[in-house]
Amino acid sequence: MPFIKKSAQKIKQMFLAHSKLSAFILGIFSVQALPPFYTFFVLFITFPLLFILLNSAQNRRQSFQYGYWFGFGYFACNMSWIGNALLIDAEKFGWLYPIALLASGGFFGLFVGLPSALSFYFKNIYARWLSFSAFWVIFEWIRSFIFTGFPWNLLGSSLAFSDILIQPASVFGTYGLSLFVLLNTMAVALPILKQDKKSVSVMFALLLCTCISFYTFGKHRLDNSDKQISDITVRLVQPSIPQSMKWNQDNLKQNFADYINLSKSKDLTNVDFVVWGETASPFPLDFEPQYLQQITQAVPPQGYLITGSVRFTYKDGNFHPRNSMFIINKSGKIVDYYDKSHLVPFGEYIPFRKYLPEWIRPVTQTINDFLSGDGPKKIEIANYPSLGGLICYEVIFPHQIINPNNPPQWIVNLTNDGWYGVSQGPYQHLVTTRLRAVEEGISIVRVANTGISALINAYGQTMGEISLNQSAILDVNLPKTPSIQTPYRQFGNIIPLILCICNILLALAFKR
After folding, report:
1. How far apart are CA 184 and CA 33, in angstroms?
2. What's the rounded mean pLDDT across residues 148-167?
3. pLDDT exceeds cutoff 70 at 263
4. Of 91, 319, 324, 428, which is most buried, counting CB atoms within 10 Å of its CB?
């Protein structure tokens, strides 16, 4: 196969001459496959080239370096929106912007470097291909809990350009999607490295089987889904208040009034739930009854208002804030609440605070650290399906958004993506919510102060949406069947981890 052989030689000469820089550039270009770009085919170029680099490594250290520099470029770019939060109070935090970019790439690059180093143990080409794919996914899983976790932009999210292709996440989760993306894209490198007909056959067989099985399963699942809607109407309220104005003392009352006026700008009679975003109320409603009374103007006559607000609890001689969700009825009574349990490091609390200077405080401008809640909670409201609460980035954690032993029938996810401006962040946040809906088989109502608000059904399909930075309300009806059982909900990450272990066992067999 002279053409493949000649191509392989040219690729090796070009990339091996500047291997670390090549890996870094490949990582940057791979970001184009993620939302909101979805240039998925780029992975069929970048990942095979990465695999060729890894295969050229002379030792484990060199293999780690190639993977690390790929990861550095990949994560620094796909998480570049994080730095935008520091520009809201640029005078105080702006100097940290370049540090945030370097820290994102520098730390998360380890989650590609370590799988690369481990895969070096497998000398056989097929064994290395299988093992690297498995180790990548295992470290994606580790990324979901180490140092409180941040499983943002799992590689499987690159398939979210298609409602059909993400349906297998209902069986083996987004981690499983990541595994199949890696196996299929990196398989392109096999014929280049092996230069034989067998490797060509393996590549085409895998691609064909994966495409057919994913499409067939996803199409069948969507075609047989219950498309009926209920008579439960939810009003999504997105005022799009700029983050720079949200906590400005001169604007607090006006922001509060804007939420109320926007909520009642259309008749509330047939509405069951009005939903506001994260910390939509700038006033602690359980401490200031006058604002709780004002808010009743936005409550439907026979329904409820769901809003984010700071809640204070007394502990150790001080009042401590909690990032909470309140459910309020027409008489102004708080009938239930949910406290955010997964807090944002440096945003809502400072890790290792006792070792740091006293003047350091969270970027959210609170004086004290927030207190965390007790985890997923099922909220029962008479005559309505039970609901669960999620606040902001709690929705990014696979198999952690509900209690599988006592699941709600739908979820309300309150957020505020105003920190990140017009960037990839809000779009990626929305896609993450869609994937959680598919995994757990549950409808999610997502409402942002500024961002993208939407109703997402149990199949990850967007049933109604308010665009980024648009000030609007949207009335949507919950699906008649808002929740369905899925294998992933029942077994969680056991399924994708078993797939990874099988990959590693097969790699060991090839190694022998």
Report:
1. 14
2. 96
3. yes
4. 324
Cα–Cα distance for residue pair 154/493, rounded to 1 Å? 14
The SS3 assignment for 103 reads helix
- In the structure encoding, which two tokens stand for residue 291, read together? 């604002």
The yes-or-no verdict on residue 347 having pLDDT over 80 is no
CA distances in angstroms from 402 to 59, 225, 307, 484, listed in the order given: 44, 22, 19, 13
Q: How many residues does the chain have?
A: 512
Q: What is the mean pLDDT of the chain?
A: 91
Enter the pTM of the model: 0.92
DSSP string, 303-371: SEEEEEEEEEEEETTEEEEEEEEEEEETTS-EEEEEE--SPPBTTTB-TTGGGS-TT---TT--SSPPP
Beta-bridged to residue 353, according to DSSP, are none
Residue 466 three-state SS = strand
What Cα–Cα distance (Å) separates residue 168 from each residue in 131, 156, 242, 439?
22, 11, 38, 8
Pairing of strands 472-479, 273-275: unpaired
Cite the active site residues. Answer: 278, 340, 392
C-alpha 238/C-alpha 280 separation (Å) is 10
Do 67 and 56 form a contact (C-beta atoms < 8 A)?
A: no
Phi-psi bin for 214: left (phi > 0), alpha (psi -120 to 50), beta?
alpha
Three-point CA angle 214, 168, 505, nearest 5°: 90
Other Cβ atoms closer than 10 A to 87: 16
Q: What is the spatial distance between Cα 320 and Cα 308, in angstroms, rounded to a whole number? A: 16
Q: What gap in Å lies between CA 106 and CA 76, rounded to an integer?
A: 8
> Has residue 317 got a pLDDT over 90?
no
CA dist 366 to 172, 252, 297, 330, Å? 39, 16, 29, 31
* Distance (Å, whole) CA 148 – CA 393: 12
**149, 87 contact by CB (below 8 A):** no
CATH of domain 229-480: 3.60.110.10
Which of 262, 314, 261 lies closest to 284 in space, CA to CA?
Answer: 314
> Letter for the amino acid at 375?
G
411 three-class SS: strand
Instruction: State the Cα–Cα distance between residues 347 and 136, nearest whole angstrom.
Output: 28
